[in-house]
Amino acid sequence: MKLAKENFKVQIVITSLSLLLLIVKTVAYFLTHSLSVLTDALESIVNVVAGFIGLYSLYVAAKPKDVDHPYGHGKAEFISAAAEGTLIVAAGILIVYETLANFFNNAPLHALDTGIWLVGATALINFVAGTICITIGKKNKSLALQASGKHLQIDTYSTLAIVAGIGAMLIWKVYWIDKVIALGMSALIIYNGYKIIRSSFAGIMDEADLDLLNTFIEVLNQNKPENWIDLHNLRVIKYGSLLHIDCHLTVPWFLNVHEAHREIDSLSDLIKTHFGDAIELFVHTDGCLAISCAICNKSCNERQASFEKKLTWTLDNILSNKKHQLEP
Predict the structure, then answer these.
(1) CA–CA separation, 323 and 318 (whole Å)
(2) How confident is the model at residue 310 (pLDDT cuts 50, 70, 90)?
(3) Residue 108, SS3 per DSSP
């Protein structure tokens, strides 16, 4: 809840900033009549709309669990990111249309020296805001904030290209470059919009985050106590900033209920130490079998076979529902 509220406050600032930058870019367009500046202003309209969508999604995601949503409301962030990505692609297509429709229209340009300062200032502000947004989004595991931050940084890169184009027009009087830059930036905008849509659908469909899983497995291998004989059937699902983790943990069969639960508590503490407190952990404990002795180096009076090899958890065996990876 604390992280969700922090995400919501950050999104309020980002949305307000997007609205301010839209006003600045609109003023720059009316001063310069530059088509590339117009494309930048059109994209900023998308920034504002997407900002409000992200704001609403984070408001929904911050709501506590209820009867209708037992896993919380975090999936709203993925829907928001999908909507934002769609808007980015739509803005790119609109920019292409406006550019091609006016490609042979040689309307005069004005006040390019003033325009370059106004547009350049928006690029700097966007980059700083986008970096802060992505940093907080990664820390709080918020896809909506990361999408907003990436959108701001994309806006920065396109704006810098426009600044370079205005500079070229000021120095060499090559006014056709205005339209070429607009087309090039539209292609970049469409591509990055597609990437945001792709990542949002991955979250909606509970696609495995391989980077997260590999980091998770590395942490487990480095901190594995002897009572954790095996861990399998691992599932990690993201609900906004919440990580929902299911797994089966094999412990010595002779541990009583309280002792087995202490192993689960130890696993929970390890995960929260490395991945934060926004964790929902469900662990099913299995008692070891005779076949487990081959991968268990615990000294005990119940051993029925010799230790043969240490089992290193990997992406293949930890996701499998096959116990110990030794069963026929």
Answers:
(1) 9
(2) confident
(3) coil
Q: Running DSSP on this structure, what letter comes out for residue 70? A: T
**Domain covering 210-325: architecture:** 2-Layer Sandwich (3.30)
pTM for the model: 0.66
Q: What is the DSSP string of 259-322?
A: HHHHHHHHHHHHHHHHH-S-EEEEEEEEE--GGGGGG-----TT--S---------HHHHHSSS
**Segment 101-135, tens digit of pLDDT:** 877 777 678 888 898 999 999 999 989 999 998 89
Structure-token match 């991955």, residue found? 202
Where in the chain are the domains? 2-204, 210-325
DSSP category for residue 66? -
Which residues have C-beta within 8 Å of that of residue 316, sequence separation ≥ 6? none
Distance CA 232, CA 183 (A): 50
Instruction: Give the H/E segment covering residue 62.
Output: none
- Give the CB-side neighbour count of residue 166, counting CA atoms within 13 A: 29
pLDDT in tens, 260-275: 999 999 999 999 888 8
User: Any long-range contacts for 8-11 (C-beta under 8 Å, 24+ apart)?
Assistant: 8/55, 8/58, 8/59, 8/62, 10/132, 10/133, 10/136, 10/145, 11/51, 11/54, 11/55, 11/58, 11/144, 11/145, 11/148
Residue 190 has pLDDT above 70, yes or no: yes
CATH class for the domain made up of 2-204? mainly alpha
* Cβ–Cβ under 8 Å, residues 12 and 57: no
- The DSSP code for 323 is G
pLDDT of residue 43: 74
Rounded Cα gap, residues 301 and 290, in angstroms: 13
At residue 307, the pLDDT reads 87
